[in-house]
Amino acid sequence: MNRVCFGCGSILQSDSEMITGYVPKEKIDNANYCKRCFRLTHYGDKTSNDFEKSTKTILDKVNFSNNYKIFIIDFININNNTMNIFKSIKGNKLLLISKIDLIDKSININNVVKRIKEIYRISSDIRYISSVKDYGVNSLLKYLEIKNIKKCYILGPTNSGKSTLINKLMELYNPKLNKLTISNKRNTTLEFIKIKIKDITFIDSPGFLINDYNLDNKYKSIIKPITFNMKENEVIKINDFYIKFSNNTSITIYLFDKLEMGKYYKELEFNYDMEIDDNIDLCINGFGIINIKHGGNIRINNLDKDLISIRRSVFGGYDE
């Protein structure tokens, strides 16, 4: 019987280092992890993207199955792109918001969840957890037991917390099992990995690949909403991009990490502009959310337009 790497799910082999699952021949008999995952865990080595699975490949596999599906996503990356993937998942499913320990207490998560459900027209249940702080992990397992779930896919974008959740469940209920490899590098998990915890078989999956502002970003800080009052034609610089506002407005920026930001007064050439309504969220894949109170024209420099999606704000402030 073929043995698999408990980090990425690849079959362990000693034939070629160019194929996933490679282990030096002298170590393969006792190996639980391939060379790639071992070095990723212990040395933080960057990984090749050659073996990543496409969104279509993952969806084709899971949609062929009647197993329950959990789509895990951190709050900062809930946007039109990720929610379109969630809606493409067929059958019984759950939207699970991860890393809520990183959300500032000024944000009412229950109200935000309600608005997410309304804005994206989600009929499935929504729950939220923090695997690091053990919040909601036990109740998630009980939720699945009450629903009599026996097999369950764990799905989500790369680095959304899939393997961290499964590791936490193993730590709580079966600590003797080898843990999955966790990394902030894109797509550590390359194949589907089955892990039985109590009476439920969880199936960890490769992450969905989404064009991202910064795939190597590892969230460590709490989201601290920062507000700026922008006057007509003023520009704000956030990290390495710029936004110019045609009207007076207030903006509130939600990021996991503290980055350079402030008003900018030098002349700039802008790449494109957008017309926006009042009280929208400008969502930037893998980066953050900018809530803009008053609509009009915005001009943008040095930010890929494909990274942006716009929605009615999940933070409220409009007539509902």
What does this structure look like?
The chain has 320 residues and is an alpha+beta fold. The protein contains 6 helices and 16 strands. The radius of gyration is 21 Å and the shape is globular.
From the structure above, extract its key features.
globular; 6 helices; Rossmann fold; six-stranded mixed β-sheet; 3 domains; alpha+beta; five-stranded antiparallel β-sheet; single chain; about 325 residues
SSE layout:
Elements: H1 35-43, H2 55-63, E1 68-74, H3 80-88, E2 93-98, H4 109-119, E3 125-128, H5 137-146, E4 151-155, H6 162-173, E5 193-197, E6 200-204, E7 226-230, E8 235-238, E9 241-245, E10 249-255, E11 261-264, E12 272-276, E13 280-284, E14 288-292, E15 296-301, E16 308-312
Parallel strand pairs: 1-2, 1-4, 2-3, 4-6
Antiparallel strand pairs: 5-6, 7-10, 8-9, 8-11, 9-15, 10-14, 12-15, 13-14, 13-16
**What number of domains?**
3
Report strand order across the widest sheet. Answer: 3-2-1-4-6-5
Q: What's the CATH architecture name of the largest domain?
A: 3-Layer(aba) Sandwich
Distance between the termini: 58 Å
In terms of quaternary structure, the protein is: single chain
The name CATH uses for the topology of the largest domain is Rossmann fold
> How much β-strand is present in the residues?
25-35%
Q: Helix/strand/pairing class, anyone?
A: alpha+beta
Give me the Rg, rounded: 21 Å
Largest sheet geometry:
6 strands, mixed
Strand element count: 16
- Tally of individual helices: 6
Q: Low-confidence parts, pLDDT < 50 over ≥5 residues?
A: 180-186
Q: CATH homologous superfamily name of the largest domain? A: P-loop containing nucleotide triphosphate hydrolases
Average pLDDT, all residues:
83
Shape assignment: globular
Helix content: 10-25%
Reading the helices and strands in chain order gives: HHEHEHEHEHEEEEEEEEEEEE
Q: Please give the CATH class of the largest domain.
A: Alpha Beta
